[in-house]
Design brief:
615 residues, five-stranded mixed sheet, 21% helix
Length: 615
Amino acid sequence: MSDTTLPLPSDPRPTGSQASSTAGDSPRAGTRGETRLRLWPGVVIVIAEWLLITVPGWIVPATFTHFITMMWGPVLAVLALAVWWVLASRLRWTDRWLGLLACAAAGAAAYPFFNSGFGLFGVAIYALPVVTTAWVLWLVLTPLLRWPVRRVGLVVVFVLAWGYFTLLRFEGIDGNMSATFQYRWRPTAEQRFLAEIAAKPRSEASADRPAAEPLTLQPGDWPGFRGPDRDGRRTGVRIATDWKASPPRLLWRHRIGPGWSSFAVVGTHLYTQEQRDDSEAVVCYDRDSGTEIWAHSESTRFAELVSGPGPRATPTFHDGKIYAQGAAGRLLCLDAASGRVVWSRDIVADSGAKVPTWGFSASPLITQGVVTVFAGGPDGKMVLGYNAASGDLLWNAGEEQVSYCSLHPVRLEGVEQLVLTTGEGLIAFDPTRGEVLWQHSWPLDKGMARVVQPTVLNDSDLLLGSGFGRGTRRVHIQRKGDGWETQEVWTSRAINPYFNDLVVHRGYLYGFDGNFFTCVSLEGGEKKWRTRGYGNGQVLLLADQDLLLVLSEKGEVALVDASPDGYKERGRFQAIEGKTWNHPVVAHGKLFVRNGEEVACYQLGEASSFLSHAR
């Protein structure tokens, strides 16, 4: 569209400087003031904004590129719209400045009434695209209205667009960075859970109980985070694989407090952690009925924008006791049978660390009588080692301050070690003295963190995974004189695990590359196959049957062949509802799943004696 309109000889409209002086003043749609509104740049900007927000999520989901375009796309769109509106819209100067002022004022007035979870991050990613789209869409849909009406209507649009977000509660994002909103007057899942707790008789809701016999670990138990060896691998179990003929049978299902813990299973006791209003709770449920046996609460609450409230770590059973770490830094040792406190420590006070952005996430590891957790404190207090019996601080070591991983036990060339993944790479400690044995450097960009656990391949090689498109590296570790040497074997971008841990089986690794479920060769890191359909879930290996039990981000459970020959799903069912990032557990013929809203137990059918896992 040209900048001027040339009149015909009979055209009575003003020309030249007269036209420019009256631009935007015409009282009726279709007259000179209205036709001079240059709208197409605004339309182009809004379309480009939505392309920046959505397309990377299809092409490179859950990568740094995806995050940057979601964050800065709306910000750049607002700046571009402001430039268009002020310099190229052709409206009166008073309308230009008053329009910008109205948009900014409506946003400033609404922001104090936004749900506390929003923050500037939520405003940038979610509110700005709606406001900018409403701005341009109003002008596109009202060309026949008089300009004074359009002008007033635009102010109303700003008020309504910003005001709409005051009605919403932000409930976090999923692994693909898609947000969940709910109207603020509707109760949260946690509020519904608390109402149910309050309505239960005292005897059901963890009344005082007499002392119980000490618990011991039995065959088939699952003592903590990702199993006996912390590798997400279940052996000695064979289940029915024809889920049409013999589907998993629901034994019990009920609400649970928010949190991202998994389970420890010891005999008929099921342990997890959850948020209950202003308290973090370590809870013991009956394995077969889901009835609460006991709960121990600490008065603290941690919450953040992405994942919401609740503990992040999983309880660990050892020698009759439960060790649990809260998101705000409280480390507990409890009697596993009764929930009685044996000792407690505050790792923030012990290390001088600050509570991490996403909360303390390390599930305690007990090795040779020492409980180790990541703290991230300064002055050599990255990792703390406590006496498992007394809680006395035995050692501290390490300088790095960013990790959301748990210590991982390994035996390399016959030497027991504790390995931890960090933003800088891998680091290994002596479990009894805390001495740093070796480090492998593969640093992430500043401000980024690793969440995925290291994966042990053999007595000399580990896998180190990284999200946001950085890939996975195979590292070889060997003795060299009195020390250790690390060497990169390969680095592959075929799989980029962020918070979704990997499993390995018969020369291949299986896990999540964003929202793709993927199989990769351990020989050279080549991709064998990948598929969508599980979001950003978690995986458990049933090694005896060459099967993968996949828990999807939406609470579905699927049975998939652990084979490099191609993707094959044997069955799937909806186990629980809601965003699910927690690791599944199989113990004593039962499947245990949970998220921040629900927990459920399913009886798995037993494999027929004539079934063979050979293919």
